[in-house]
Amino acid sequence: MNKSLRQLFTAVVALFVVLGLSSTIITAIKAPELNGDARNTRALYRTLGAPRGAILASDGTVMAQSDPVNDSFSYQRVYSNGPLYAPVTGFFSITHTADRGIESSRNEQLNGQASSLFWQQVKSIFSGSESQGASIETSIDPTLQSLAYQLLDGKEGAIIASDPKTGRILAMVSTPSYDPNALASHDGEQANAAYSDLVSQQSNPMLNRATSQLFPPGSTFKVIVAAAALESGDYDTDSEIPAGASYTLPGTETQLTNATSAGNGSDGKITLKDALAQSSNTAFAQLGVELGADAIREQAEKLGYDEQIHLDGTTSTGSPSYAAASKFPEDPTDDRLALASIGQGDTLSTPLQNLLVAMAVANDGTVMEPTIVDRVRASDLSVISQTYPRVRSKAFSTDTANKLTEMMEQVIPAENPALAINGISIAAKTGTAQIGESNHANDAWIIGFAPADDPQIAVSVVVHNVDDYGAYAAGPLMREMIQEALQ
To answer: Does 310 reside within a domain?
Structure first.
């Protein structure tokens, strides 16, 4: 071989090496980066050019589905009763990445790209059929979901309900809400305008208040302090604790009082049971200081405080969704500890966290993992994955749970007998957290479960910024939810 041929051969080999390396870098190493590049419209057209899986309620009601359309995207995402189910579904848009709800936590399964759908992908290739995403079957009860939405109409707040024995979420509503259909428009300008309008609204309708907003829990936190007292072994339901008409916060001149004279007790003392039933601020503030911050924080953390609560999904199914971490203060001074012990000051909770508290009492002290997806099915209806009940923690003993149930059964007769339901025993705790300088701006709470002796449903309700107490602003909403679930 002469010199010219050798040089030509070397050049050809070098070019093939360069070609091979560049192809490998583009198709393998840089593939994820290129697919995720906002300028890469091919990925978008590929995603929208195949039927995305449906999101279904527990009875098969369609919450979201992809319908064929005659445009360049081939399929239009459609949300039935969009605002009703928005906190559950989230949204899917050509202009903004799904970052909430099942559209996000199950994105890889919905678009058919999850590794669990490998054989369905192979079948599609060899059969020449269209690749289809999996359908997601949730635990949401449409009747309870619709009722919760109606009950919150015109209010800012959240209702979340579950089966305390399994952790399955039966309803999750946040108001004000939004319509995901506006974000699903195939007109990019319209979708962008709709998104900009939603995020600019002061009421923040895209925020899921059930899982992502922290509220001062008010007197509902007294259930946790009562649990810490019972678990210490130094207190029982009939133990008398200091109360009184007022209590001066340690190191200050601030006077803490009770909402009603019944919370004052007799001769400056009240039983632990009556303190919870009458929601005695002076009793629980002093009890919290006596127990100490460490004991209360330990009890709160066993129930989920100070960590994000996993709600759905994994990195292989999409982007896992978590609830915001509820907070109990670190190393508070005694005056701050007294306030934190009655759910004010630096104590903050999500409605989901408060639901876990009710679930723990209802389930003999065992906290179940909250779940919102029952199963995932491939397009051929085969089950890809099934959700089973999982224990999250053992928050306190069965004995403590039984005593707390006994105490919580006295709350409705003591605070608002109108919340009672004939033939059904309800264990509950109300809360009224002052959020402004006056007594006319409150977060109204109630948590509870029923029947008290065989719990079938647990409920957490918060109504934000109202001029009323939890027993009257939130209580009737819980009553309606329980009555509907048990009828």
So the answer is: yes
Task: Let me know if residue 94 belongs to a domain.
Answer: no
**What pLDDT is recorded for position 47?**
55
CATH code assigned at 351: 3.40.710.10
Q: Is residue 52 a contact partner of residue 62, using CB atoms and an 8 Å limit?
A: no
Q: Which amino acid is at 229?
A: A
Number of compact structural domains in the chain: 1
Query: What is the pLDDT, as a whole number, of residue 258?
Result: 96
Range of the domain at 306: 218-374+388-486
Are the CB atoms for 248 and 254 separated by under 8 Å?
A: yes
Q: How confident is the model at residue 259 (pLDDT cuts 50, 70, 90)?
A: very high
Distance (Å, whole) CA 245 – CA 224? 23
Q: What is the 3-state secondary structure (H, E, C) of the chain?
A: CCHHHHHHHHHHHHHHHHHHHHHHHHHHHCHHHHHHCCCCHHHHHHHHCCCCCCEECCCCCEEEEEEECCCCCCEEEEECCHHHHHHHHCCCCCCCCCCCHHHHHCHHHHCCCCHHHHHHHHHHHHHCCCCCCCEEEECCCHHHHHHHHHHCCCCCEEEEEECCCCCEEEEEEEECCCCHHHHCCCCHHHHHHHHHHHHHCCCCCCCCCCCCCCECCHHHHHHHHHHHHHHHCCCCCCCEEECCCEEECCCCCCEEECCCHHHHCECCEEEHHHHHHCCCHHHHHHHHHHHCHHHHHHHHHHCCCCCCEEEECCCCCCCCEEECCCECCCCCCHHHHHHHCCCCCCCEECHHHHHHHHHHHHCCCEEECCECEEEEECCCCCEEEECCCCEEEECCCHHHHHHHHHHHCCHHHHHCHHHCECCECCEEEEEEEECCCCCCCEEEEEEEEECCCCCCEEEEEEEEEECCCHHHHCHHHHHHHHHHHHC
Q: Per-residue confidence at 129, pLDDT binned at 50, 70, 90?
A: low
Rounded-to-integer distance, Cα 374 and Cα 296, Å? 34
Enumerate the active-site residues. Answer: 219
What contacts 286, CB < 8 A, 6 or more positions away?
241, 242, 243, 247, 338
Question: Is the pLDDT reported for residue 82 higher than 90?
Answer: yes
**What strands, in cross-sheet order, belong to the sheet with 169-175?**
169-175, 157-162, 457-466, 442-450, 427-434
Task: Judge whether residue 275 has pLDDT over 70.
Answer: yes
pLDDT of residue 121: 53
